[in-house]
Amino acid sequence: MERQLGAHYARGGRDALRRAIEVRMATVGVPQGVVLLTDAAGRRIAGNVADWPPTVSPAQDHETIEIFRIGHDTPERMRVVATRLSGGERLLTGHVIERELRFARVMEDAMAVAMAMAVALAGLGAALAARMVEARLGRTVATAEAVAAGDLGRRVALDGSQDAFEALAVSVNAMLDRIAALMTELKVATDGLAHDLRSPLTRLRATLERALAASHDEAARSAVLRALDEGDRLLAMLDTALRITRAEAGLGREAFVAIDLAAMVRELVEMFEPLAEDRGMTIVASVPPTLPIVAHREILGQALANLVDNALKYGDGQVEVTAARVAGGVEVSVADDGPGIPADRRPEAMKRFGRLDAARSESGAGLGLTLAAAVAHLHDGRLELADNHPGLAARLTLGA
């Protein structure tokens, strides 16, 4: 519009431009347009705006302003350009952009709503997908937890969907079948090893006993007695190592029975009282009247005896054996007043055949703590070595 009006001014001056503006407004109309022609002093000559906007200068480029048009009760936002004509007149032309801005705001609101809906739908889809994956994997997770708890015959149920989850279940079942086969082979091998080694060791011991009975030389008898002690020690080591292997493999749960742990601890303390007196120490039990649990009586008793024996060997002062029910099971603690074990060396002490420097002066094979840890694993618990301030506290936790 600016160029067209400028052409009229170039041909006929201000009067021609005024007539062109009046004709345009009378015949064509400018429903969304704005036009104003003023003289050099700023007096209105023609157009649909009453006064020249004070913020608009002909030296400026396109500008967005808010002004009133003649016949309108509210201000409107305009995009205008001002031009100074050769005769000093000023020409303001432009168009209303209020509708465009309103449309832009509507589009922004619509996009915001669409984005919010998209995010909500995406979140819902993700939640549904997560629920579906969790439901499909739930059987596999439950099976793994059951196997870890000792149910070696548990398998993932198949639903025939033949998808990736089904393939995973098939692979897990195949793995569990292989583990079960290896466990069976391990049991057979360990039982066979125990039988094969115990027999010659037992025959060796019997031979030594006959040699001891037939010998009258004190030096020879002393040597035979030492050999008998070493044979007994070797048999005990073999038996303990086999027990550890079976316990770590989860074998032996079929022998679990109901026992009174409190009574077992009291009997154990009574059994070790003479040894404690010989070492100038005391041993006491702190247990409730009864503490019923389900456990493997034989190996649990051996594990507790190993802990008490260690406390008497390497501890000092008083050894206290406590048993109590805790969250998730029961806990047996054997605490002494000795030098204890540094925190950084406790993992080494719990390794199989692991013996610290201070323990090498005492008899033993370094299997006591390892057996206790394996027994705890068999009973879904754990063995923890902690400070007794002073001394060491060995805490054996058994699952409910």
Automatic annotation (TrEMBL):
Q: Which residues cross the membrane?
A: 110-130
Catalytic activity reported: ATP + protein L-histidine = ADP + protein N-phospho-L-histidine
Q: Where is the Histidine kinase domain?
A: 192-400
* Broadest EC class assigned to this enzyme: transferase
Record-level Gene Ontology MF annotations: phosphorelay sensor kinase activity
In terms of superkingdom, the source organism counts as: Bacteria
**SMART domains linked to this entry:** HAMP (SM00304), HATPase_c (SM00387), HisKA (SM00388)
Keyword Amino-acid biosynthesis included in the entry's annotation? no
Q: Where in the cell is it found?
A: Membrane
Q: Which of UniProt's keywords are assigned here?
A: Kinase, Membrane, Phosphoprotein, Transferase, Transmembrane, Transmembrane helix, Two-component regulatory system
- What EC numbers are recorded for this enzyme? 2.7.13.3
Q: Where is the HAMP domain?
A: 131-184
Asked whether the keyword Disulfide bond is assigned, the reply is no
**Where does it sit, as one GO cellular component term?**
plasma membrane
Main site of residence? Answer: membrane
Q: What is this protein called?
A: histidine kinase
Q: Which organism is it from?
A: Sphingomonas abaci
